[in-house]
Amino acid sequence: MNGQQKAEANLQAFEQWIALQTPESFTQITHRGKLKRGDIAKACDFAKSALTQNPRIKERLETLETDLRTTGVLPPLSEKSEREQAELPKYQSDSDQVSSNKRLQELEKENLELKAKLARYEELAAVIDEIGLNL
Questions:
Q1: Of 62, 61, 60, 75, whose CA–CA distance to 30 is shortest?
Q2: How high is the pLDDT of residue 89?
Q3: CB under 8 Å, gap of 24 or more: what pairs does 10-19 form?
Q4: What is the mean pLDDT of residues 119-127?
Q5: Which residue from 46, 69, 104, 107 has the highest number of Cβ atoms inside 10 Å of its Cβ?
Q6: What is the CA radius of gyration of the chain?
Q7: Are 13 and 45 spatial neighbours (Cβ–Cβ below 8 Å)?
């Protein structure tokens, strides 16, 4: 099964899951005014990432939550939640990507250096244990 087929199968599973739900069942998987993504993914038998990485599922989930708010099953979003949602970046600019990659490389280098130091200290600790020094 290729990626497109899997995405389509996941969407169909999600739609089938929605069709089987009642307002009470939606209420049972609500946390902080949203449906629990982990519970949805488990029920649909796909990875939680499908809810964010498959644009059709993501859009359908947003529509579902909006509809549930309209009918009173989910509470309305607070002003703070709406503001935070609007402030989320829609994409990462090239300069942000470059600086993120540079930062990642710096952290990987620092991590390797720290692992090397740790290995030296572990060797020193083993030698001290071996000769029986109590410090």
A1: 75
A2: 59
A3: 10/44, 10/46, 10/50, 10/54, 10/57, 11/54, 11/56, 11/57, 11/60, 13/44, 13/45, 13/46, 14/40, 14/44, 14/46, 14/57, 14/60, 14/61, 15/60, 17/43, 17/44, 18/60, 18/64
A4: 88
A5: 46
A6: 24
A7: yes
Domain ranges of the chain: 3-87, 93-135
Length of the chain: 135
pLDDT at 98: 76
Distance (Å) of CA 75 to CA 24, 34, 39, 81, 93: 14, 8, 19, 12, 34
Residue type, 30: T
pLDDT tens column, 63-115: 999 999 999 999 887 755 556 656 665 565 666 777 888 888 999 989 889 98
34 DSSP assignment: E
Residue that wins the pLDDT comparison between 8 and 135: 8
d(CA 21, CA 17): 7
- At 47-68, the pLDDT tens digits run 999 999 999 999 999 999 999 9
